[in-house]
Amino acid sequence: MMQIEDPFIICDSLVKIFKVGDVEVLALQGLDLTIRQGELVGIVGASGSGKSTLMNVLGGLARPSAGQVVVDGQNLLKLSNSALTAYRQTQVGFVWQQGSRNLIPYLSALENIKLPMTLAGRTGSKANKRAQMLLDMVNLSDRYNHKPIELSGGEQQRVAIAVGLANEPRLLLADEPTGELDSTTSDQVYKLFQRLNQELGLTIVIVSHDPLIAQHVGRVVAIRDGKLASETVRRKATNSEPEDQFEELIVLDAVGRLQIPKVYRAQLNIQNRVEMEVIDGGLIIRPVKNLNETSSQGEIQIKRNPKKQPERQGLFSRWRRKQ
Ligand SMILES: Nc1ncnc2c1ncn2[C@@H]1O[C@H](COP(=O)(O)OP(=O)(O)O)[C@@H](O)[C@H]1O
Ligand SMILES: [Mg+2]
């Protein structure tokens, strides 16, 4: 994982287990993630990979089963229930995919924004002014008194973002906020996130199943099976490459473990053993050939690789491990 100075969010070996009857579901399986103050980060991953669970943990809606989660210097596992409730109310804002989860249908846009302020004990003309200011900020100055049903999907999400910002959180979490929007409207919502990120210095984490989210955020991390699997980095445009380029890098955990994507495993018929070889400054991972002819499982047989000269090779190329 990338080492980040002065991190705002630290997830260290996060585990979240849901028990459904006798069945245990491992939603997060040792997830490591660090986010800097003021970053705009996208999280992608297949359905069921643990994205929402991570957002719920970061937002103080769920407590992890193991591991550490620190947000803005606060260890969320050590907060009492009442402190966690206060954290949820005042330090994080949420935007969900479904408009109905974000907004109360019978309240106007202004009233929806004032509701979380009222719950946090902020009322009166100051709260009213702030609600108006927030609607102005999301370019809805002409929609103060509209009810959600009188707003388009994109407008509803912009009100939802204003609601999320009502109590001046330092962190905004959005779980598939554009999931029900067309691409033009999604672009507008992403632009708004970018503006809030830049103008307010707000740290924003957006979950999306849209791989193109890389164009809208500073960094994209991908979750696979409850673990951070890869990170897409942006290579700035150069003279020879006029457009920014995106490159997906595989993430290693603290002890060097990495995940081989399921599609690659299927494509190459990789089961639970691979061969590794260092060549030309790189590392090759190959399916094991003739697995049946190698020794029984668990026993390590170290064979010299006859094709290579030992002097000029590293650990893995000099000795071919067959298990
Ligand atoms: N409250 C819950 N109870 C039981 N299982 C859950 C619960 N929430 C999530 N899960 C399971 O945890 C896994 C990850 O879910 P989730 O975080 O919602 O994934 P994503 O948001 O990436 O689609 C899934 O297998 C899901 O079924
Ligand atoms: Mg989800």
Concise synopsis of the structure shown:
By secondary structure, this protein is an alpha/beta fold. The chain folds into two domains: 204 residues, 3-Layer(aba) Sandwich (Rossmann fold), CATH 3.40.50; 59 residues, no CATH class. 27% of the residues lie in helices and 30% in strands.
Features:
single chain; 323 residues; alpha/beta; Rossmann fold; 2 domains; 7-stranded mixed beta sheet; 4-stranded antiparallel beta sheet; 9 helices; 15 strands; disordered C terminus; binds adenosine-5'-diphosphate; binds magnesium ion
Count of DSSP strands:
15
Write out the distinct hetero groups bound to the structure: adenosine-5'-diphosphate, magnesium ion
CATH architecture of the largest domain: 3-Layer(aba) Sandwich
Please indicate the percent range of residues in DSSP E strands (runs of 2 or more). Answer: 25-35%
Number of domains: 2
Structure classification: alpha/beta
- Neighbour order of strands in the largest sheet: 6-7-8-3-9-10-11
CATH superfamily annotation of the largest domain? P-loop containing nucleotide triphosphate hydrolases
Reported for the largest beta sheet, the result is: 7 strands, mixed
Instruction: Give average pLDDT, whole number.
Output: 88
Distance between the termini: 28 Å
CATH fold field value of the largest domain: Rossmann fold
CATH class category label of the largest domain: Alpha Beta
- Helix fraction, binned, reads 25-40%
Spans of at least 5 consecutive residues with low confidence: 309-323
Q: Helix and strand string, N-terminal first?
A: EEEHEEHEHHHHEHEEEEHEEEHE
Estimate the global geometry from the Cα principal axes: globular
